[in-house]
Amino acid sequence: GAMPDLTLMRRVDMLVAATEGLIVPLDNWLPSDLVGDLLPGTQTLGEIDGLLYGVPYALNLHHSIYRASMAEEPLLSFDDVLAQEQVYLFPAGSPPVSWTLMLQYLAAGGRLVDVDGSPVLDREPLVAVLSYYERGVDKGLFDSTLLQYTRFDDYWNHFASAEAHLIDVDSITYLAHKNTVQNVGLIPLPTLGGTPITALDGWMWVVTTSDPDRQQQALVFLSWMMRISQQSSFTEAFGILPSQQRALRLWNDEAYAEFARLLIESAESVLLIQRNDAASLALQTALVDVLDGASAEAAADHALAALVG
Fold it and tell me: Is the same domain home to 233 and 254?
């Protein structure tokens, strides 16, 4: 059937819809106050080539959690994780490349594209990240069974049953299950130097009609949905983060709201085309090599050679 005049779309679907001419840009008629309270950096989720096609409404973040009783201090860096010697679960097999790996590589200063937009990997940060995994394999913290995990839900039960004490999650997974576990610490993904980083995704309100009268009707409903109290109540009830700062401040779960607010400031924007390019595929292959027992240096050589070849 036909799409409604106003609908929610994930960013990846919004990109396709805009390419196929199914949605219209919003810049010319959307009141600025509807996007005036968005959390820093979130408006770019609704933009394509500088044009606003979607109003960000609900957000999803990538981060880690750990059992707070197992560590006196938050595990922020690779060295923290290795020193703790706890099994660490993450979706290593998520296609086309593990978000965890990609973000850790970017946090170490690595690039996925050069100034010309061609796929590239930088050897020094690549080896630094792969060395973390090599050392973890040696300590028994990582192995190739991680490649079976493609979703955060795949291993949640291992955390809930205390078989694992350190895992990667997204905010949707954590908020859906948080009441089933206790003694949980919230942390960004562990990185080389402990620098926080995350990937930000979400759902946007998009408009499919070019008719001015129907656009006006859509705007009335959109304005109602973007009311601060309305958005705050709706998103917390459904376990997704709101896009507006004041809506997030109204959450009953103040600790998670503050954690998310700070982490969003560290969000890294990775274009869909970059996530599917030769550099990302080579990066994933390098992780597979290390989890299968290769050295970081050898896996890096393999990845860089694949790019040149």
Answer: yes
The CATH code of the domain that includes 303 is 3.40.190.10
- Between CA 174 and CA 171 the distance in angstroms is 5
Q: Which of 254, 252, 304 is nearest to 279 (CA)?
A: 304
User: pLDDT tens digits for 86-107?
Assistant: 899 999 999 999 999 999 999 9
Query: Residue 212 pLDDT > 80, yes or no?
Result: yes
Q: Are strands 198-207 and 267-268 parallel, antiparallel or unpaired?
A: parallel
Strand partners, 119: 113
Cβ–Cβ under 8 Å, residues 264 and 42: yes
Residue 210 contacts residue 24 (beta carbons within 8 Å): yes
Q: Per-residue pLDDT tens for 114-143?
A: 999 899 999 999 999 999 999 999 999 999
Q: Which residues of 185-222 are buried (b: 16+ CB within 10 A; e: fewer)?
A: bbbbbbbbebbbbbbbbbbbbbbbbeeeeebeebbeeb
Domain-ending residue, one of 236, 252, 268: 268
- Inside any domain, residue 136: yes
Whether residue 97 lies inside any domain: the answer is yes
Ranges of H-type helices in 239-291: 245-249, 254-264, 272-275, 278-291
Domain range spanning residue 97?
A: 62-197+271-308
Q: Is the pTM of this model over 0.85?
A: yes
Asked whether the beta carbons of 235 and 247 are under 8 A apart, the reply is yes
Same domain? For 66 and 92 the reply is yes
